[in-house]
Amino acid sequence: MDHKLIVALWDGFAILDAMGDALPVIMRWIHITSMATLIGGVLYARLVMFPAMAALPEDARAALAERAAARFRPSVLAAIAGLIISGLFRLLTTPGHNRFYHMLLGVKLLLVLHVFAVALLIVQPQHPRRVRLMTGIMISGLVIIGISAWLNRIF
After folding, report:
1. How far apart, in whole angstroms, are the C-alpha atoms of residue 109 and residue 87?
2. Tens of pLDDT along 61-83?
3. Which end of the chain is less congested by CB atoms within 10 angstroms, N or C?
4. Cα 25 → chain centroid
């Protein structure tokens, strides 16, 4: 094995070891920020933007909805990626939970899959049921936040 490769690997492990305390904090921040971006963006669109757009003519409303969906698409993709990465990190680094915790986590993850799938649908061009789907994300997202708060309390 090349000496430079061994030194590089050793330096890499030293960096990871030095980040031992910072990495969980960074992952937690990514998780909370991604959740706030995804659920908060949908809450704003559903409760503020779409009702305000009702005063616009139909063609202007449709054009604005399409532009908003196109602008929100990169945020949705980044939030989903952030939630998956940080969620897997948290799951793999915090072992030792009881059955009740895993049961609630399973329900939460099913709701998360629902939110991810529907979030990907609402940012598609010319989706006819965008507002209705946002209502489903809103409800599921708030239930997920409640389950997460409970899971944090019991662990």
Report:
1. 10
2. 999 999 999 999 999 999 999 99
3. N
4. 17
Contacts of 143 (CB under 8 A, 6+ apart): 111
- Smallest Cα–Cα separation from 87: which of 45, 4, 144, 21? 144
Q: What are phi and psi of 126, to 5 degrees?
A: 50, 50
Q: Are 155 and 140 in contact (CB under 8 A)?
A: no
pLDDT tens digits along 95-120: 888 999 999 999 999 999 999 999 99
* Predicted TM-score (pTM) of this structure: 0.84
- pLDDT greater than 90 at residue 131: yes
> Residue 8 and residue 119: Cα distance in Å, rounded?
41
Angular region, 98: left φ>0, alpha ψ -120 to 50, beta rest: beta
Instruction: Please state the φ and ψ torsions of residue 20, each to the nearest 5 degrees.
Output: -50, -40
H-type alpha helices, 45-127: 50-53, 58-93, 99-122
